[in-house]
Amino acid sequence: MRPHHSARIFFLSCVCVSLVAAAACSRKKDEETGPAPAAASATEPEGDPRLAPSPGEEPAGGDPHAGLAGGDAGAAENPHAGLGGDPHGGAGTGDNPHAGMGMGMGGPGKAPEKTADGRVILGPVTLAVPKSWKEKTPTSSMRAATWTIAGKAGDAELSVFYFGSGGAGGAQANLDRWLGQFEQPDGSKSADKAKIEKKQIAGMPVTTVEVTGRYVASMMPGASEKHDNPDFMMLAAIVETSAGPYYYKLVGPKDTVGGARKDFRGFIESQKAAAAK
User: Fold this and answer.
1) In this structure, are residues 110 and 117 in contact, taking their beta carbons and an 8 Å threshold?
2) In this predicted model, what pLDDT tens digit does every residue of 191-233 receive, in sequence order?
3) Which of 22, 116, 179, 213 gives a 20 to 30 Å CA spacing to 53?
4) Would strands 125-127 and 204-215 be described as parallel, antiparallel, or unpaired?
5) Measured on CA atoms in the order 119, 120, 121, 124, is the torsion positive or negative?
6) Planar angle of CA 256, 99, 58, nearest 5 degrees
7) Non-local CB neighbours of 229 within 8 Å, separated by 6+ positions
8) Do the Cβ atoms of 157 and 250 come closer than 8 Å?
9) CA 196, CA 72: separation in Å to the nearest integer?
């Protein structure tokens, strides 16, 4: 065998040995370290944290306090930051009320339809809206309607939430959640200061609640930031219709909401069955 041919064979043998060794090292390293972890994915909270969950369910997205009102039932979303977000907002209370409820809560909503005589249609009922209330396009598909109520102390916001025939938890659970969004100057429980009434209107069970205090609902569902609005007031109602409960929540400066008490009550009591289409 010629010398140069032997050298070539020797060189090729060395290369093969090196490749085999490298492959073995690579397999060993993979076995020791394992596959790279998958990247964590961030998801937006869903649901209206202002409303209580159904029995046995976890609160949706964070602050189960949303509520019906202005800002995010809530909830949230917004019931309610500026009022529109947190349904409990009131001017400056955040649209999630219950913060623009459209944040991870179904996108923007649409204004409710009207009857020929101007009554607003909300599911199976119609209601007479006070002329001084200014209608707004709902910030979430979970909101059935939203109105702003002007006042010298600042605007308040009324939001109406609807979550289907199953609702968003029992009436008492939602009342407790809304009342938990208010703190009393003397440290007492808001539930002990609230005025709660149950009655029938047009054959439908209606639960209403009124409370004042420092409004401290979460700015947004799942957020740690909270509102801090002293001398605020909430007027809210849960109407159990044939299509499921509707949640009405009015939140804002005490003077503004208190001044709208008569109109709010008249609005709720004006409801009657909508004409069949």
Assistant:
1) no
2) 999 999 999 999 999 999 999 999 999 887 778 899 999 999 9
3) 213
4) unpaired
5) negative
6) 115
7) 90, 92, 93, 214, 215, 216, 253
8) yes
9) 22
Radius of gyration (C-alpha) of the chain in whole angstroms: 29
Tokens of 89: 């907002």
Question: Does the pLDDT at position 70 exceed 60?
Answer: no
Higher confidence at residue 77 or residue 260? 260
- Structural contact between residues 168 and 43, judged by C-beta atoms closer than 8 angstroms: no
Residue 76 DSSP symbol: S
Handedness of CA 114, 120, 122, 124 (dihedral sign): negative
CA–CA separation, 177 and 199 (whole Å): 21
Could you tell me which residues come within 8 angstroms of residue 186 by beta carbon, excluding any fewer than 6 positions away? none
Domains of the chain listed by start with CATH number: 120-273 (3.40.1000.10)
**Average confidence score pLDDT of the chain:** 74
DSSP letter at 183?
E
Buried b (16+ CB within 10 A) or exposed e, 145-183: bbbbbebebbbbbbbbbbbeeebbbebebbbbbbbbbbb
Tell me the C-alpha distance between 127 and 134, whole Å: 15
Is residue 241 predicted with pLDDT exceeding 70? Answer: yes
Q: Is the pTM of this model over 0.70?
A: no
Cβ neighbours for 126, distance < 8 A, ≥ 6 positions apart: 115, 119, 120, 271, 272, 273, 274
User: What is the C-alpha to C-alpha distance for residues 265 and 250, in angstroms, rounded to an integer?
Assistant: 11
